Queue: 4 jobs
Job 1
Amino acid sequence: MAKKLYLDDLRVGHRLRSKSVTISAQDIIRFARDNDPQYFHLDEEAAKDSMFGGLVASGWQTGALSIKLLIESADPPFAGGLVGVEAHIAWKFPVRPGDSLRVEAEVTRIVHPRRYADRGFVSMDMATYNQRDEVVLTQRVTVVAFRDPSRAAPRSTTETPIPGSFPVD
């Protein structure tokens, strides 16, 4: 069985760095057509008259690419996938055709709720950079991370509230 990245392997300060991906005008238009059909994402000529002065990627496309890059940066991959619980997103600069994006993330908090012996919650600060090292997007995310079954403690019968905004039920 292939090795996986478990909650037990993560520590506050753990960093992930992705490879780069270059976004084309065709990528931008294709995503916009299906998900965010605004003229400055769809039409290069019309976009020249927008506040952006040209074609730009949807912020949602930038966010989706950022998560894809984060997932792909984990080697080994996250056990059970990367299941989001919470996200705070800020778009800093528009992404244009030809931009190359990469992601850096750092684990900032780990919660081991007594209620769940098989999982915990990991918070990360993420930044997406373009080829000029400008931050184009920041995200503060919380994800579910699964414990290695061979290292998981037995489930507690004592209920303990989870700090922060995590659900306790």
Note: Strands lie at 15-17, 21-22, 83-91, 100-111, 119-129, 135-146.
Job 2
Amino acid sequence: MDTLFLLRKEECITIFSNIQTISKKEEQDAADYFESEFEKERLEFLSDYLICDKETAVWAAKVFYHAAQLYLVRENTAKDLDQLIPEFRGEKNVSALLSADLSLRFLPQIITALQTLDPNDPLIGRLENILSQFHYSGVEYDLDLGKINWEEELEDPSFRKLYLERIVEKRAYRLAEIPYINQLLIAEFGLHKDELWRELKIINEEENK
């Protein structure tokens, strides 16, 4: 719990000298903690139907926690990667995306640090695959999102609003210049476009066909 609190409040994490085992009680405590954090952030969701997916929130927290530990502790860990960084096997809906984001929003920093140490580290690809599934948490990271149907991905109005806000917050030009997203942003900005993001180009979709 102390590790999660530091991560959420101070954006820092304690690295141990060996991989720590997470107990069932710690998982339950984490689930309760993330539920309370989700409720605080839900004030921005403008939606009453979104609830914390506690199982997904705990999965994401364990992925981030183990990724951070593996940044320094790698001896005899290769055989345990499937257990330490498991694939997501739940239902990927808006509640799951936002619940996972409570931890995965910090994952790009870990991946960048791993790339500095060893760009060929197989852990990087594993983490990038997870971030590609939960790309709302990796808006600022250079992911291959070319196969995404953005109209379907951003169909939910609450999620669409949050996604656009994060693109603006992170100044994610790569995403902002995707024609569909660009149109959404320009419509959202209205007459205040130059005040909110002067440098953003207005993309003509016809010119990109």
Note: The mean pLDDT is 87.
Job 3
Amino acid sequence: MIVDAFGTRHSMVAAAFINHLLDVCSHTYDDESQRWIPEEEQVVMLLHIVNAHKPRNEAEAALAAQMAVTHMLLMKVGKRVADYTYDTKMIGAFANLAKTSAFQHEVMAGVKGKRRSTSQKITVRQEKHVHQHVHINHINGGKDFNDRQAQASMAGRFEKNADGSPALPGPEETGRVVPFDGGKGKAGVPDSWRVKG
């Protein structure tokens, strides 16, 4: 069972993991055996945390063991902070351990393919609006004609002069032509300006 908890088939690898976890546990001196013995409850907790992550190989088992140790240290430092609220160094250590624990959980989720995706897909669509405005302020009392019907109704009110040039619109609805005298007021070109061939 212990071998499976570390995602390995090698007993020596599992034994190395266990020894590392035992080293970080608190120890009490046993008078009978005359040696320091790790606290059993801490050892059991660490093993259960590693097993809860169900590591599939030794690499995942190493990360799970780090997470278990980080949790235990976080609780120990948290007790110190609760007893000595003025100890700023321990407060900083507690904050760093909390960040480390959160980062380790994120990494484990990524390794197992369970990380939440935070990417967003934004689709931009371009719409083209064409506005046609025709303003005719000279006719109909200064009113604007901005629709096709108004343009069509005004088309017949523009007439032409006798020579075929467009005439200015008149104020009457009939669109009477305002005549232009093409020759009146024009002076001849002086001979000195003429180009001699």
Note: The chain is about 45% helix and 5% strand.
Job 4
Amino acid sequence: MTTTAPSPTSSGAGRTGLFSFPNPVNDVAARTVATGVVVMALAVAVLGWGWVLVPLTYGFVARVLTGPTLSPLGTFATRVVASRLPQHAKYVPGPPKRFAQAIGVVFSVTSSVLWLAGATGASRIVVALLAGAAFLEAAFGFCLGCRIFAVLMRAGVIPESVCEECNDLSLRIPGLAAGSSER
């Protein structure tokens, strides 16, 4: 028998208000958002469309502050794409994903400031790095920001209480805790 966690978008699990972030996060939605980020970041880095930095930066800020609620891309990913692919749902801890979105804020804001300051070449390099990290998430499910989060947790910079399920798989997989007590 397979047990799945409740969908944060359908049940509101892990959400306490507008300024909250889902926990757990549906990985299908996260990878869909990453795909949108790749497209927007490449539009800036390759085509030089600086105006795309506005929705790109807004999206990261909105997702850090409210999860998918105020992010058009996040809403599309959770309500349209992920809801149509429930058989592929894989739930992962929310705090590392929020941390990764915060790194996206830093890169997109930096790129925007550089663009506005006339340093378009530097801006394009910064946003290309962002595109590379987003591509890893979109194509391979490798969340670079989540890996950095894990390293910071192991180093004690981020307290373990921020993401207990990151260290205890039985909190993410309900059958795991029950199965271990039967042995």
Note: Confidence is low (pLDDT under 50) at residues 1-13.
